[in-house]
């Protein structure tokens, strides 16, 4: 299976585009590769001469197209809509973006499905999720209900929304069930849930108080952190429309729940703010790049030098977000800013930029 390494070896980053949204399982890999190549060769699609098409890749439904001219790649990305004809009446809506070694094109997450045990068969739940989102890679289900998934950010987003919807639905059913039970005569046989009231308590933790009439946004955690700490637009918009927010970070995926600060009739400001933030985060998703300084395996002095250099440059690069972790340091920003930031860090610590 092809991977990003093939693109790296070609040294054609600026001429390479990432094509997401390809159908999985409908056509053979060879036929789909041919269709993708023909589509991006067509000048009516702003295409041109192609050097190579890398497909399949480690991320299901994603291909890398290496064009011969940088200008053609830019034109293809600039085009708003791409629809690939799969069959006579079947079209796949494609998402096309510039290639970057650090682009947020793939996300890995670990799920704990044990909260659904007692309400449904976990193996059946996983099978349903695989059918619903075939572009995701699922690991075998663990004995404690844990499972790892990997795929594009949009696929992970769809997965999380689906699971939250199922959890919310089960919570409502259990509440209605318990309410009906209370109405029965005390002498009548008392019904109980298979795993007791803890099921309701556990599921309720998935639906925060601010999301009872939820307006929910799911996004990549790096994008969320950048939005929160480097974009005034976020706090300004919440304050302007008097919106309460509750934020939750779960590994590579983060969720924001929005609710009106004051209940009442009329259109929902939370929904409007959700639409504004979704447009903003989508733009960030394609614009941001991430560079990482690995601290593992380095001596204390070298680690401290890297940390010191990053701290020194934070005041200079206001649009770069620096996240310090025990094992590494992430720098997030535009491609030019992150490159310059990394270059200056390497100079400060006396190393060459690789």
From TrEMBL:
It comes from the Eukaryota. Residues 175-188 have a biased composition (Basic and acidic residues). Residues 175-197 are annotated as: Disordered. This is RNA binding motif protein 43. It comes from Sciurus vulgaris. The lineage of its organism: Eukaryota, Metazoa, Chordata, Craniata, Vertebrata. The gene is RBM43.
């Amino acid at each position: 299976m092809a991977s990003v390494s093939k693109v790296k070896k070609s040294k054609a980053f600026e001429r390479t585009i990432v094509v997401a949204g390809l159908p999985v399982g409908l056509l053979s890999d060879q036929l789909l590769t041919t269709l993708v190549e023909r589509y991006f060769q067509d000048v009516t699609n702003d295409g041109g001469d192609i050097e190579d098409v890398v497909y399949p890749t480690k991320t299901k439904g994603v291909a890398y197209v290496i064009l011969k001219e940088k200008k053609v790649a830019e034109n293809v990305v600039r085009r708003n809509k791409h629809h690939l004809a799969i069959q006579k009446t079947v079209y796949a809506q494609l998402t096309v973006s510039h290639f970057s070694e650090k682009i947020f094109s793939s996300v890995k997450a670990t799920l704990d499905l044990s909260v659904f045990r007692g309400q449904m068969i976990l193996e059946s739940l996983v099978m349903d999720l695989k059918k619903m989102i075939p572009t995701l890679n699922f690991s075998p289900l663990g004995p404690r209900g844990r499972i790892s998934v990997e795929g594009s950010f949009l696929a992970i987003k769809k997965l999380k929304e689906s699971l939250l919807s199922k959890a919310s639905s089960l919570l409502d059913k259990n509440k209605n069930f318990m309410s009906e039970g209370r109405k029965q005569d005390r002498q009548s046989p008392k019904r109980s849930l298979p795993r007791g009231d803890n099921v309701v308590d556990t599921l309720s933790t998935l639906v925060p108080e601010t999301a009872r009439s939820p307006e929910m946004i799911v996004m990549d955690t790096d994008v969320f952190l950048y939005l929160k700490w480097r974009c005034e637009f976020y706090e300004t918009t919440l304050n302007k429309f008097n919106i309460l927010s509750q934020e939750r970070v779960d590994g590579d995926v983060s969720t924001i729940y929005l609710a009106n600060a004051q209940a009442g009739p009329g259109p929902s400001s939370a929904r409007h703010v959700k639409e504004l933030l979704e447009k903003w985060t989508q733009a960030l998703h394609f614009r941001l790049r991430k560079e990482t300084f690995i601290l593992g395996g380095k001596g204390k002095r070298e680690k401290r030098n890297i940390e010191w250099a990053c701290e020194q440059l934070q005041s200079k690069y206001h649009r770069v977000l620096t996240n310090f972790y025990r094992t590494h340091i992430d720098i997030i920003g535009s491609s030019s800013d992150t490159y310059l930031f990394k270059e200056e860090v390497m100079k400060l610590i006396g190393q060459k930029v690789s």
